[in-house]
UniProtKB/TrEMBL annotation:
Name under which the protein is recorded: Uncharacterized protein
């Protein structure tokens, strides 16, 4: 039986896919990109419909069936390049298993940096009070440190920042899936002369990228300067 959390996540996927489809239309994206956004929205809808049918024996007003991104995709014109470039050779480990790196960037606007520092200082005081009284009493004075403190005060992931929508206003994001050969280790950090863990090596490959565009109809004409970016 599906859980309420799974249903909520499926609903959020529908909303995200709908926004992505809307952004592709707004941007005048190529027909192939719009098609893929349509398929993602369709399949997210089917998933949500299936879950509420399973749990509540209810349905949505959308009559959809799962689609394959390649099926019925628009064909390129005679002078147009193929819709999809050939998939690069994917590196595998010695045992044949594939190792992937999933990277998610989300940009945020911080309307009141001072307020964010205050929130982070309070989060630190609460989180560390019974662990390290000296650290708990130390105020947060840096924006990067503040964001980290709020992440650690939550579940340890960027999702923890969703609890502060007025102080960290979400902007555009991107999710990338890469095939990699070497696992992430911190002994070979850039500070020690090691490679940048966010850069692909010559024998590694990007497998997938999903752009997430946040569109606020009420503030389309207002200039916004991103104040922080998280990977």
């Amino acid at each position: 039986m599906s859980t309420e959390a799974q249903i909520d996540a499926a609903l959020e996927a529908v909303v995200s896919a709908a926004r992505h489809h809307r952004a592709a239309l707004r941007a005048g994206a190529p027909e192939e990109q719009i098609w893929r956004a349509y398929v993602a929205l369709n399949n997210a809808t089917v998933r949500y419909d299936d879950l509420i049918s399973e749990v509540y024996d209810e349905v949505t007003p959308w009559d959809c069936e799962y689609l394959e991104a390649e099926s019925d995709a628009p064909e390129p014109g005679p002078d147009e390049p193929p819709l999809l470039p050939p998939l690069p050779e994917v590196p595998a480990t010695d045992g044949g298993a594939l190792m992937v790196s999933v990277r998610h960037r989300r940009d945020y606007v911080i309307p009141q940096p001072t307020r964010l520092l205050t929130l982070a200082t309070e989060a630190r005081r609460t989180s560390w009070a019974g662990v390290d009284a000296t650290h708990a009493a130390r105020p947060v004075t840096d924006i990067g440190e503040a964001v980290n403190e709020l992440v650690q005060a939550g579940d340890g992931t960027v999702a923890a920042l969703d609890a502060y929508p007025e102080d960290l206003v979400p902007g555009n994001g991107v999710l990338v899936v890469n095939a990699v050969r070497r696992p992430l280790t911190f002994a070979d950090a850039p500070a020690n002369g090691g490679p940048d863990p966010l850069l692909l090596g010559p024998d590694e490959a990007q497998l997938y990228r999903m752009d997430e565009e946040i569109v606020d109809e009420d503030t389309l004409d207002e200039p916004v300067v991103p104040a922080a970016s998280l990977w």
